[in-house]
Structure formats: C-alpha cells, structure tokens
Amino acid sequence: MKKRYLILENGSVYEGEAFGSNVDVIAELVFNTGMSGYQESITDLSYRGEIIVFTYPLIGNYGINRDDFESLKPAASAIVVHEIARRPSNWRQTMNLETWAERTNMPGITGVDTRALTRELRNQGVMKAALVNEITEDVFDKLKNFAPSTSMVAEATTKTQYQNPTDGVSIALIDFGLKNSILRSLAKRGVNVMVFPANVDAQTILSANPDGILLSNGPGNPQDVAYAIPTIQTLQEQLPLMGICLGHQLFALANGAETYKMKFGHRGFNHAVRHMSHDRLDFTSQNHGYAVSRDSLAKTELVVTHEEINDHTVEGLRLQGHHAFSVQFHPDAAPGPHDAEYLFDDFLNMIADAKKETPQNA
After folding, report:
1. Which residues contact 320 (CB under 8 A, 6 or more apart)?
2. Widest Cα–Cα separation across the chain
3. What is the pTM of this model?
4. Most exposed among 45, 101, 280, 302, judged by the fewest C-beta atoms under 10 Å?
5. 330 is catalytic
6. Is 278 a catalytic residue?
7. Which one is catalytic: 211, 282, 332, 339?
C-alpha cells in the first residue's frame, strides 16, 4: 500500500498506509471513542471540517450498509484508524469501508498508533492536522496558515424546504446539519416534519402553522450561526421548542448564555449524563467540541437540567416560564444507546400541554 502521513500543527508526524481517496486535506483533528458506529459517525454532518481518529483499533469490520447513513456522503474530511478491516462480515453490508471511501472521495490512513495519537490530543487538545501523501516544505506553512471555515452550517444545511408528511403533530425543524436519525425518531412517533434551511426567518416558519420547533445538530462554532438567534428568540415566545447539540448551543446563546471551545470535546456514545431533577443516569451519544458556559447562566432565565458526570459539562437546559428545553447529546442515538430517546416523547407531551393552555380559537 502507498505511504501516507498525518502531520499535526505541533510538528508531530504519524506515518501509515493510504486508503480511500488520494487527495490531501487539512482540517481539525478530533477523536471518537465509539467501538462501532463508524458509518454513522463519518456521515454525521456535525463532523464537517474534521478528521476523525477512531480510538477503537479495528474499523470497518461490518462493512457499509444502506441503512446507517446520517447523510448521503461522508461529512468528515478524512479518517485515521489503527487497522482497517480487509474482510468485513455482516448480512447487511453492500461493500467494505475501503471501497466506499474510494467511491466517495474520502481519504484515510491506516497503520497509525491511535493510542499515542489520542493521548497527544487529550494532553494538548484538538489541533489542526494535514493528511498528505508526501511531506513537502510548504505543508507546514499551509498547516500553520489554515483557518477552519466559518460557514460550515451554510454548507451543510438543506437549500430548500421539504416535508415528511403525516397527519400527526406538526414540527418545524430548522436544519443546521441534520442527522437522518432525528427524522427517523420523529417519523416513528407519527410526527409531521417540515424541514427548513438554517437561515429561515421566524415569519416563514410561523406561516406554516407548526405545533412546535426543533433545532437540529450541526457543525462548527455556534457563534458563527448568530444569524439564527433572532429567529429562535421569536419562535420560543410563541411555540414549544427543543434543541439538540448545536441547536442546544444556539438556544443558550439566544437566551443570553455564552459558549466556549472545549479542550478535546465529547465524541462517542459512552458519555454518562445525569438528569438533575429525575435522579437518573443515561448513557448518551455525543459529538461536540463546544459547550455552554455554566458561569454565564447566572444572568439568564436558563436552568441546567442535565450534566456530564465526569467533567460536569452542561448537557441540558430549560427556559423558565416557557415550553422550551435543549440537550447537548443525541436522544436519537445512531450510533449509541437509546437511553435518552424519551426526550422526544417529553417534547411531544410539552406540545400537547401547550395546546391545552392555549384555546384554539384564541
């Protein structure tokens, strides 16, 4: 196999073997701690602009199938693995990971000491990295001068409004980089989903007469999506609202809180989260490099509902006096445990309660 090199902005170089596309890429380097679910992770639009290091040593052992895509093509810029499976085995597979990477123009590197690499990222934090076929003098200059895109949500969102129609409760979903599993979770509950682009205005949504609002996940820095804040502020005053992942961060910003970039983030589906009022623990699927500042909540009407048990990161919020809440993790899972899927039911119950409080002829 052809040699390939992973170069970190701190000067570290990891040598391995190439697979997938031959293109060189520069992006932010992050690690994912999941033992499976690589297909869902690679196609999760929240990974846009990132190179994923998989900490589990064998990746691709059950191939690629038609059911587990979170978007139509890879969202991650590239992937780094210790070993890529040569002979995957699963009754659902249609091809192996290596072939799919070639067909979808996604570069990868195998044969890397991912334990040492992950330890470096944990100690020093996520950093920029280049995945190249040849080490040249200008690679280090390009890496030094590289700046992540500030328009990743605009690149990831749907360009047109569309609908998954049913005769059930109607929810307007603002797409900041939507995972398909959120749509599947809502469809399973008979919800009529209307999906809108990230830059939609409040009046366009209100004219569709939804029963509730859902803010989706998505990539990048929430502060780059400030254009969505006025829309959220208007909608939360009129309709029940739920935010997921990036939607959680934007909900916080819309209500006066602040966000910050984490040292290495939460990416995996083994994160235990405490529900503060229900005295329960859920294992959750997570993918975020930014978080809501707990200290900034004192000046807001937001209340913490969930926290990560290890580092106490804010994982859930509720807006006092409103039918509005958000969570940093993915109740839709995919991949990961379904412990927190009940939150979709809580949202639908919240919508039902709001309808009871507001007479239909009011």
Report:
1. 301, 302, 303
2. 70
3. 0.96
4. 280
5. yes
6. no
7. 332
